[in-house]
Amino acid sequence: MDLMTDTKIKISANHLNVFYGQKQALFDISLDINQNEVTALIGPSGCGKSTFIRCINRMNDVIDICRVEGEIKIDEKNIYEPGIDIVSLREKVGMVFQKPNPFPKSIYDNVCYGPKIHGIAESKDDLDAIVENSLKKAALWNEVKDRLQEPGTSLSGGQQQRLCIARAISVNPEVILMDEPCSALDPVATAKIEELIDELKQSFTIVIVTHSMSQAVRVSQKTGFFHLGKLIEVGTTEKIFKNPTNNMTQDYITGRFG
Amino acid sequence: MTKDTHIVKSYGEELQFLNDSIIQMGSLTESLLADSMNAITILDKEAVDRIVQSDKKINEYRAKIDTQIMTLLVKRAPMAIDLRITITALRISQDLERIGDLAKGNAKKMLPLPQNLSADLLKSLKRLGALVESQLNKSIDAYINKSKEIAVEIIKLDSNVNELTYLSIKEILSFLSKDTKNLEYATNLLFVAKNLERAGDHINRIAENIYYLVEGDYYKKK
What pTM did the predictor assign? Predict the structure, then answer.
């Protein structure tokens, strides 16, 4: 398994600093994220890993006191440049959250909502095809194809999370951000999502925040360890779990932290 | 340096217990190897039963360590240094068990007892035995102290084991051509020499694993 061949950098953070009011949340983060790979971000609560991924689709813009310095490039283009269209950025960079958050609408409507507002589908047939395709990619189609008009909230937790993944991929993004997507799920639902992540990386670049080093090992090729707003170490996941360079990383992943 | 204590105290205790088990198993193997060399050189046939019993004990250690490791893997999903401690313990216990088997095999080889044996015959074999014993002793030290320096020293000395094995075999063969009344005994000694060399290989692997445990990377011969 050679992880270092034919990799293209999809996202590149350069000297990123993030402030919430007076408080600095991220310190000089520089991190490259490879295309068609899963990059895992680990670290204790409050270390800045969620703040970091929220910078990748400018979700932090909705927080008034949040200020971002430095740059994040996607395909070589700085997304913090003036004049960037944030709506199309978020079309390109989808997000899945910790708790499944389907809209209070039908399963079908949950998935076709994005394509509709982004004007991706021209006809009902197009929409049907997108819904089917997205649900198939999210490994949910077989379970819901006969109940597409039922509310999304009627599904189990794991199914709801896969519905959210289907919703994220329905607009044909290039990057999917996942903020602890399995933390509210049981082991079986977690296994299904992890299996899905592995398949999705063929079509998308995935950045996942997780508390579990074991999960990072199962799903990711590259891992970054954050602590107190700093990126302490980044490397292939194999290197990080076998023999991290930094003692702080080692103390965290072996449970010696604190 | 990494902190010694885990947040979950019992996890740290389990790793410590595994570490101690390896050291105990290593010490037992060390005594067994010394016993078996002693039995061969002073022709102590009473020792064979004792050696067989010790080997059984070593096998029990191996089974116990296996269980400890499986429990650790499932319960704790060890990472980094803890993962290396666990995996190398698995490998080292396998090598120690094999050394025990080889030493036991050697002790059994001294029968039938020889008649009017020339003292010279065992000279190289004794030196070989002493070297292998000292290598094993060093490997236990290296494990206790987690010393990659001692591990490297052991790896470098392995070629001496091979040379001495060759010398011993040559000596035994020359004896065989002259003294036909001890044919079976002397032939058995050839196996003893070969077994000692193989024990040396296992010790070499133990040293390589200790190096990996400490460094997180494999030793590369320059």
Answer: 0.85
